[in-house]
Structure formats: structure tokens, C-alpha cells
Amino acid sequence: MTLIDPDTLVGDVTFADLGLAQPLLNALHEAGYERPTPIQREAIPLALTGRDLIGLAQTGTGKTASFTLPMVHRLIGGPRRTRVLVLTPTRELCLQVEESVRKYSAHSPVSVIPVFGGVGYEPQEKALRQGVDVVVATPGRLLDHLEKRNVDFSYLETLVLDEADRMLDMGFAPQLNRIVEQIPRYRQTLLFSATMPPEVEALARKYLRKPVVVQVGRRSSAAITVTHAVYPVPRHRKNDLLVHLLTKEAHDSVLVFTRTKSGADRVVRDLEKAGVRAGAMHADKSQRERMAALDDFKNGVLRVLVATDIAQRGLDISGITHVINYDVPQQPEDYVHRIGRTGRAASTGDAYTFMSAEDIGMVRTIERTIGQEIPRVSVPGFDFGT
Ligand code: AMP
Known about the structure:
This protein has helices at 22-31, 38-48, 63-75, 91-104, 122-130, 139-147, 164-169, 173-180, 198-207, 238-248, 261-273, 287-298, 309-312, 332-339, 360-370, and strands at 53-56, 84-87, 112-115, 134-137, 158-161, 188-193, 212-215, 227-232, 254-257, 278-281, 304-307, 322-325, 350-355. With 386 residues, the chain is an alpha/beta fold. The relative contact order is 0.13.
């Protein structure tokens, strides 16, 4: 588990100051959290009042706790009905939110279940029918259950849209609409997003009422502890450069991004050939394979995880030391998301980007987006001379 270093948190506000109930304070103490992060400091008191909220924050800022803590607080002592729904773009994120709710409700009688596709339907149906306080779900599978009337949202009080930008990127807008049509209009809605493109703004206008916007850091700003570097390299030498960097320098755990699924598989094969233990994470892998790769990575069995953008979003992969953009992201926002994977904890993470001749324009766009120039690092023998 990544713990955010309290020394990086300014001010001396405590969780108790935010108005959280004692069972939550006990659970936080056990989790080793000393002080709230900036997004928690801003969002928790507001969410506790029942207001709608837009939280602009990436993974790694403590945003999950900024909605799960007030949510558990408000559930304590209430009737046993489904009162909270959290929608997440991916199964992995769904499980992480569930874990977070369980952690903070260790001393509170709050029940939670994760609902996502790719696994057995009946156990979820049974659990939903038995009744549960919090449902954490991906949109597609939840709709199946709603259509079969396995779940009753008539008492729903709070809707959380986590990583709203990614849900829209993944094409979930129609499902979101159909779900929101079936839950009470008078509710609290919390929307979290790393970025605020016009589509997310439109979504917020539609689903939220007089929301307060809480933003940590500048819009699209990259995590400050990350050290960036661009490696100019001819396209056909990228793999040699990767092997070179992974074998010549000490890197504990590295997340490598490729543009395509086949690219990810190819990089894994080449790394294995060079004696570097690596696993792939992309949409063609089954849920079980993805979880196994993630476990191996977390346990240090795999040093390198090679992922596509869709597969990585929202994952809490603790202790990543490096992110390597083997392929330059296609959107500048993806750069911010990708490097949000590193620099999460006290230690600084490094983000390397391989740049071939055709990527020069996109790298400039990324630099404009994050508001800083990224230093070029030339490795003798690999540099293509820009
Ligand atoms: P998140 O941004 O929600 O993905 O959280 C990033 C990581 O920070 C997770 O591993 C959390 O367990 C951890 N974390 C969240 N809040 C705090 C806090 N106040 N103090 C220390 N660690 C935290």
C-alpha cells in the first residue's frame, strides 16, 4: 500500500478537524494515515454537508478516501438499504474502491459489494438481492442487474462517478444515462475526474446540482514529484533502448506504456528474451490474467508491467519507481494520467518518454499541456540527433 508522506502535506489539519466520526478516525489511525491530503482536506467537509461536488484530482492524491470517508460517515446508523452507488470505469478500480470502503468501515456496520463484468453473474445477483449499503460497479454489468431488477435504488442518497473522464473515453455515456434515469433525482452526486474536457463539463451540468469544484494542483498539471525525461531514439531502436535502460540502471518496478495490445505483447516477449521478467496488461487479457499480472507486479515477481492506456487507468500500483512511455501517448491528458502512476509516494518517480522523429510534435504539445519543458537525455548509440 502506498502511504502519502505526511511531510508533503502542508498545514496541521487533522482528520478529526474535518468532522469525521470516531470509528472512521480509528480506522484511519490503523491505516497509518496521519493527516489528510489537500483533496481530502477540501472535499471531505463539503461532502459531509451533502452538497454536490466536482473533484479534479488524479489517482495518487488520495482522492478515493476523499469520497469514501464522508460516504461511510453518512451511512453510519442509517437504515440497511442501498444508499450509495459508486460507478468506476474499470474492474480494477472497482475493486480498489471496494477495498477502500472496507478499510474505512472496519469499525462501522457498513456493507459493500463490487459488481463488474467478466466474472460470475449469480453470486452478484444473490448479494444484491440480499441488500447492501454500498454498490461499487462498472456501468455495463450494473445495467444488466438493473434490467433484471436485482437491485433497488429507490433509497439511493449518493451517487459517485469516479474517473468520469475515463468513463466517457471508454464510451460509457449511454450506460451512465440509463443508470442515472433509474435512481432518485434528489440525491448527492460527487464527480471525480483527472481532467475536465467539455464532455465531462456537460456531464456535470446534467447530473449535478450547484456543485462546488475542488481542484488540487493546476489543471492538467503533472504530479510534482515526478522527474521527466525525453529520450530521442530511432523507432527501430526503442526496444534496445528499453533493455539498455532496464539492465544498466537500477529500476525496481517499472510500468511501460505501449500504444497497442500487440505492441505490449511484443515488448514483453523481447524483455523476457533479454532476461527481464515482464507481464502484459491489456484488454485482450482475461480478468484473471490481468489480476494475476498485477499481483505478481505488486509482489515483485514481475519487475516490469507493460500496459496500454485503457488497462492502466485507476490502478493503485504502489511503489512504482518508473513509468516509461515506450510509445508517446496519443493525447496530452494521457501523459498526465500515465505519469500519475509514479511519484505517488514520498519517493520521487521518474517518467521517461521515448521520442522518435514522428513524435516530436506530440511531445511539444505535451510540454505545453503540463507547462514545462522536458529535458532531453541522449544515450550514446541510440540518439537520432534532435
Ligand atoms: P488514491 O489517490 O485514492 O488512489 O490514493 C493513493 C494512495 O494514497 C493510496 O494507496 C492510499 O491508501 C494512500 N492515501 C490516501 N490518503 C492518505 C493519507 N491521508 N495519508 C497517507 N496515505 C494516504
